[in-house]
Amino acid sequence: MISTADGVPGEQVEPAAIPRLGTTWFDRGAGYWLRRIAHGCFQLALLLFAGLVVTAFYAGFWEAVGVPRSVRTAVYAVTVVACLLSLVAGFVRTRRAPVEIPNPEQAWREHRSRQRRNAASAAGGRWTLLLLAPVLPATVAWAIGTWAAPTLARRTAAEIGAREDYERRVREQEERVEAARPLPPRNRAERRHGRR
């Protein structure tokens, strides 16, 4: 508990922690940038690894099917164009999509929900891998585009929500301090009575 200049007790408002960034979003110092860059690089490495595996699977798929080399080259050219279009479309669509600004509790809830969904889809996604073989490279390119849009933004939605929550709590604290401050005497009689 801290004390204001008028002697009215007040509390220091602390910034709330958000997923992956903790409270470093508040100062945006070296720790913030280190965490944000490390997390972005880790996600990109995972997506690139997935892209490499999918590309190898894709090339093996067309070879196993027995498609002639000239047709495979044409299929690969179409796939490259589809991947580039998917990458750009994923980036642009994610960038333009309305973003719901979560408060810190909502950000943590969404973070835990996303982790559960990822674990469930990892187990069930093996069979869909075979069904989606022709469009897998474009799907991974879409994922990289949708990853890049929020990662390259100045502030994440969770940061914006945490900042709004912090400013709301500071305003509420200032209102409580103002309400607890004693009112000044209105006339001389009240002043004299207060001195006795």
Can you walk through the features of this model?
- The chain has a two-stranded antiparallel ribbon.
- With 196 residues, the protein is an all-alpha fold.
- Helix 2 (69-96) runs parallel beside helix 4.
- The protein has helices at residues 30-65, 69-96, 104-131, 136-151, 157-180, 188-195, and strands spanning 2-3, 9-10.
- The longest helix has 36 residues, at 30-65.
- The radius of gyration is 28 Å and the shape is rod-shaped.
- The model is unreliable at 1-8 (pLDDT under 50).
- It contains six helices and two strands.
In total, how many beta strands?
2
Tell me about the biggest sheet? 2 strands, antiparallel
- SSE ordering: EEHHHHHH
Strand order of the largest sheet: 1-2
Low-confidence stretches: 1-8
CA distance, first residue to last residue: 31 Å
State the share of residues found in helices, binned by percent.
over 70%
Mean pLDDT: 77
- The fraction of residues in strands falls at under 5%
Overall 3D form: rod-shaped
Radius of gyration: 28 Å
Number of helices: 6
Structural class of the helices, strands and pairings?
Answer: mainly alpha
Write the layout of secondary structure elements.
Blueprint: E1 2-3, E2 9-10, H1 30-65, H2 69-96, H3 104-131, H4 136-151, H5 157-180, H6 188-195
Antiparallel strand pairs: 1-2
Helix pairs in contact: 1-4, 2-4
Pick out its properties.
mainly alpha, two-stranded antiparallel sheet, 196 residues, rod-shaped, disordered N terminus
